[in-house]
Amino acid sequence: MKLTPLHDRIIVKAAAKETATASGILLPDAAQEKPLKGEALAVGPGKRQDSGELAPVDVKVGDVVLYGKYSGTEVTVDGEDYVILRSDDVLAVLEGAMAGAK
Prior knowledge:
Elements: E1 9-14, E2 37-43, E3 47-48, E4 54-55, E5 64-67, E6 73-77, E7 80-86, E8 90-94, H1 97-100
Antiparallel strand pairs: 1-2, 1-7, 2-5, 3-4, 5-8, 6-7
């Protein structure tokens, strides 16, 4: 990957949009919602505090994270779509069986 996050930023590969409902009804593009979870591909070193110490980011590479609907900046690099988030934009880290169902 050619992106390197700075400070407390996280680069996330968003999960695929849902193309059908649970009951199997196909959704048109206009009705598909933006995914709110994805896998952390790269994590910055952390945010520098006023005291000069580095506050590390709580997210690790490979974690599946949930983030807010209007959080982050969407970018496309080499045809791949990514979301760049601040660590404050991450709402939760999914663990266990739920994380495997990306």
